[in-house]
Amino acid sequence: MNDNKNYVREITNIEDDFAKWYTDIVIKADLADYTDVKGFMAIKPYGFAIWENIKEYADKEFKKVGVKNVYLPLLIPEDLLNKEKDHIEGFAPEVAWVTHGGAQELENRFCIRPTSETLFSNLYGKWVKSWRDLPMVYNQWCSVIRWEKETKPFLRTREFLWQEGHTVHDNAEEAKDLTLKMLSIYRELIEKKLAIPVLQGEKTETEKFAGAENTYTVETLMHDGKILQAGTSHYFGQNFSRPFKIKFLNKNEEEEYVYQTSWGISTRLIGAIIMAHGDNRGLKLPPEIAPIQVIIVPISLSNEVVTSKANELFDVLNKSFRVEIDKRDNYSPGYKFNDWEMKGVPVRIEIGPKDVLENQCIIVERDTGDKTAIKLDDIDPELRKILNNIQKRMFDACKNNKENRTSSVNSLDEFVERINENQGYIKAMWCGDKECEAEIREKTGAKSRCVPFEQEKISDKCVVCGKKAKHLVFWGRQY
RNA sequence: CGGGGCAUAGUGAAACGGCUAUCACGAGUCCUUUGGGAGGAUUUAUUCUGAGUUCGAAUCUCAGUGCCCCGACCA
Q1: Number of domains composing chain A
Q2: Taking all residues of chain A, what is their mean pLDDT, rounded to a whole number?
């Protein structure tokens, strides 16, 4: 698509300053706004509708595998938070505290949940008695607070919306299976709905969640070559059930500690959509998740034949698509075209006096800019086809980007060279040693993203120390 | 948490210690328009907060607060 460089741009050029481009999109596409409190953003209707679509899909998938929704309190007593040592060490620096009730200072302060492992564990300790009670597969949709220093809308805010699933099981096998099952639901959501290919694998010891036995992750590549963790799923073993004394009587009437998992996705996914798909025209939303899939722009609003035809078209499409009609009379069509492109609406339908005579409308696709005249009688099936194609093309474009920005290296020098070219994923062999991992981080600025499920052997030796390599690891600079 | 920078309308800027704080864009209202960013009329500010210096402060001083960039930490 042409860049139309002559127009006065309202958004920063994506190649000039990606960070600025990103915040421009958030504001100009009307997704969210800043508030008076640093790190706390107001999510506006258009942005929230994206979250609602994600939530609706995920919630349905969760329920298919037996997840039940609950709601737990916002506040966690300090002693509860302190029960699991690794966990508190991981979260302590970014916990917000409630210290007063009205004017009175509280004897025991409360933390505002940064995540609810401890609360769930405490309650599971009460609720679980026998093997007959298990498993308990609970989830809550809520917000959490982490007192971050650097913040950026959707990507890192001090309060964010998410879902956190917490489960208890009577055997390790079942818990491990569920951990991976949830990860695969995340993968399907991100690939099929958000149209972003993922890299899935296991986090290294250094990168795993505070208190977890295993942390699994789905990683996504952004337009600028940086990597964003899009979802995680943890297997806890008995790390929480021991300190929290979550015991049950098994079939042999012996006391046993439960096996636990937790897993989550957040409004960060909206940031992923923006940064994976967006371009110089603005946001680009995959049809499956777009709050508005089709925008109808009638040309010449004073023409009654046109407006009544446009209304008719709206009524037809409204039965099977998320569609809106732009009747603003204080903007020219050209302005509206740019406006809806910036908001990432996948398909625009133009209908004007000429089209009415031909019994047709013009369909414009956001990702390619292609314009096609479609007869009004064929509109429903044609539109369905076009939206499916856009969804597929957007996924393929990201997949190509991922493949082009993944490279294998056999030495640290090569690693540094590649990462400085703004490469996305770097594949390199690793011996499993923490020191080697730390050295890569220090020398390249890249962290291990994960040990991918699909292993391949590009060499026998660790890229740092040259000793026998244990795994192929994907590395990259992260958000 | 270290190092640096900035604070004037919704946004971006201008204004020597001195006249009614100026301009562009945006937004609101009204009229005329509408096939790739329309035109006219009109409206739109406790110059971040508090104190000080001065006949007089957006401008100088001090303190506070907020924001941005660079490192360390992080979903």
Answers
A1: 3
A2: 92
Predicted ipTM? 0.82
> Hunting for tokens 């995680």 — which residue is that?
A232
This prediction has a pTM of 0.94
Claim to verify: residue A160 and residue A230 sit in the same structural domain:
yes
The pLDDT tens digits of the residues spanning A240-292 come to 999 999 999 999 999 999 999 999 999 999 999 999 999 999 999 999 999 99
Integer distance in angstroms from CA A28 to C1' B26? 12
Q: Is A102 helix (H, G, I), strand (E, B) or coil?
A: coil
Last residue of a domain, one of A338, A369, A401: A401
| Cα–Cα dist A231/A218, whole Å | 5
Instruction: Indicate whether A13 belongs to any domain.
Output: no
Answer yes or no: is A10 within a domain. no
Which nucleotide shows the minimum CA-to-C1' distance to residue A282? B37
Distance A285 CA to B9 C1' (A): 34
Concatenated DSSP letters for A165-213? Answer: EEEEESSHHHHHHHHHHHHHHHHHIIIIIS----EEEE--TTTS-TT-S
- A412 with A391, same domain: the answer is no
Nucleotides of B under 7 A from a protein CB: 1, 28, 31-38, 66-69, 71-75
User: Domain for residue A286, yes or no?
Assistant: no
Q: Is the CB of A408 under 7 A from strand B?
A: no
* DSSP designation for A468: B
* Strands A227-237, A214-221: pairing kind: antiparallel
- Chain A residues 451-470, Cβ below 7 A from strand B: none
Range of A339's domain? 294-401
Torsion of CA A197, A200, A205, A207, to 10 degrees: 20
Give me the mean pLDDT over the A367-387 stretch: 97
Contacts of A186 (CB under 8 A, 6+ apart): A198, A218, A230, A231, A233, A263, A265
Q: Is any atom of strand B within 7 angstroms of residue A160's beta carbon? A: yes
- Chosen domain end from A371, A401, A431: A401
